[in-house]
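Notes to self, ATP/GTP-binding protein:
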Amino acid sequence: MRHFGHIAPEVRQRLFHREPCAFTADSPPHVLASALGATLYSPATRPRLADDVLKQGGRGVTSMVLCLEDSIDDSEVGEAEENLVRQFAALAGRGVEPPLLFIRVRAAEQIPDLVRRLGPSVRLLSGFVLPKFTEERGVPFLEALTAAEAEIAPGRRLFAMPVLESPELLHLESRAETLAGIARTVDKYRDRVLALRLGVTDFCSAYGLRRPPDMTAYDVQIVASVIADVVNVLGRADGTGHIVTGPVWEYFRVQERMFKPQLRRSPFLEGRADELRQALIEHDMDGLLREIELDRANGLLGKTCIHPSHVLPVHALSVVSHEEFSDARDILRPERDGGGVLRSSYTNKMNEVKPHRAWAERTLRRAEVFGVAREDVGFVELLAAAIPAS
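result:
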């Protein structure tokens, strides 16, 4: 699979200076972690789940979470587990590589049980999403995952994606200790942890909050402060950090907008791009686009998504611009190892080699999996090409 692999090769050639790389579920962990992109959640109760997975894969989704936790009723868990076993068997019989698939469980004992019940179709499973992760609750999950892989699925690599969403992490008096415990745990199981996910809905719930579509997670200060502390401790660029993914965008319609649209008109003047701009504003998607940009500015990569319409905007905004690529490549040239300052090849900024090195390295990792746009190609062109014309 590859990002934008669902569009025609000739279109990709027109859009990309460097196309996204191809990857599989067996690719190196650092590639998979960067390539998660927009991770689409789906309740595990869906009766045609196998069809849904392949349909979304054909539309550009590269990672999915099949949820046994908050998205289903407590009384549905047993039925949902049985459905997962059936749907994985159906997928295995299709002979088509699905997106990266993860199961979100409720309890540690579900992990070995599901791995056992999946049988040969476990080869389609990339790992498990671990809810409300702290040191105390997380260790049993990770131990169960390690044991299941060794005893039930030898030779099959299974990853963990902890979700950071517990009240202990949110509350100021326990945040530092909770973060330190999480850091100890994920460091001990570093080869097992693919990425860390933020559960912002639970953070808001603890205070009875729900952000409207005109506001991003970063406008809710109590949420923004947690994101900052998580990145501070767990997202460092010194070799100790992990990829932290962006929070879910909770889209719902409002009858009347309270604020002016945040999307500028000027980039949308070509062809159906103006139509696309209007559709994004009418569906309150301009707030999502702003949040994706803020995710990246704050050190996050990828995003949890609950609706297919959110996937392609996340991917389009993850593509590295030609300007970013040029700056990153210039900074990392071998002759620059000694440091120094140089003018950007776009002549619009200063590139300071030593302080910007970590940014450049991250940018080139993102470029590997999401590609580099041509000099005259921006977000709108990428999105317009990726969304089929109606």
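- The chain has a mean pLDDT of 90.
- The domain at 21-318 is CATH 3.20.20.60 (TIM Barrel).
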